[in-house]
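Study both lines:
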Amino acid sequence: MLIPWSLGWVQTIDPLVARTFFWWFGHPLVYFWLLPAYVLWYYVVPQVAGGRLFSDRLSRMVFVMFLLLSTPVGFHHQFSDPGITAGWKLAHTVATYAVVYPSLVTAFTVVASLEIAGRRKGATGLFNWIGRLPWGDPFFAAVGLSMLAFVFGGFGGMINAAYAMNTMVHNTAFIQGHFHLTLGTTVALTFMGATYYLLPRLLSRELRFPGLARMQPYLWFGGMTLFSASYHIAGILGMPRRVFSGSLAGEQGAQWHTLTLIAAIGGVVLSLSALAYVVVVVATWMSGRRIEPPAIEFAVPLRPETEATVWDRLGLWTAVAAVLILIAYAYPLMQLISHPRYGSPGFQPF
């Protein structure tokens, strides 16, 4: 809808219908990126840490619940849009909070798997198993820090999904702070760590500049903490999204300006981290010493499943997911299309 309109091939477009189509796809897109990271969290990270997967059945349940609930949630991005009734916004809000549940189960399962690893290495105290984990391994450090960021990103997501609180942060800098935690750290940093894990195994080359590789995830996490935290705070103080500068007159503008400077410092640290990542990857690819490739090993569950469960019936759950999507979007879209539609004129982008 948007490309023909922007090029002037069609005269008008209904912005609300276009936004609805966008968020129908846009929120599941987050899970298209997140679920490969979850695969690593469940089935590679515990093995690298020296532990076991706490529960194979819980992991199957989590992935099925994401299949069911990741799509019919788009209206929580459209709380401020007219033309969508409050009832449908409420239904998508409930589905959004339902999809929080598998994230909480993931937090429990993965942390339990890592605790098993620490205790297998001799930890006996309440929390000292954390120090027994391989934080010097760039893959593990990247994933561990990305999971920590996801905790805070998840709390921010629940704020975005609540109608009253969303109204306070809608179109403020809080939003960019949020998605830089969930996507810019949780997903991106996990994938960076995955690169460190896979390159020696796929290329049969030793990782170059291992010290730089060990430092890079911590630089990314530190830079993103400055960047994201400052924008979260600025958003709560009312700073709008998509503005060039927060340096406005008055006390409030001064607060925004200071926070944007902190975010800029975080951006510099992130740039240095990104440069370190590219240097390690390119150097490994081009000149890493040839080695026998390490094996790709997956975590072994504490109690392996001996028989199929209801969570293995993927055909059934795919059909249920399709029905949920139909319920969530068919009638609202019919309503939107049946409304009087005046349209928005297109424009030539170049």
In short: The first strand starts at residue 12 and ends at 13. The radius of gyration is 23 Å. The domain at 10-344 is CATH 1.20.210.10 (Cytochrome C Oxidase; Chain A). The chain has a mean pLDDT of 91.
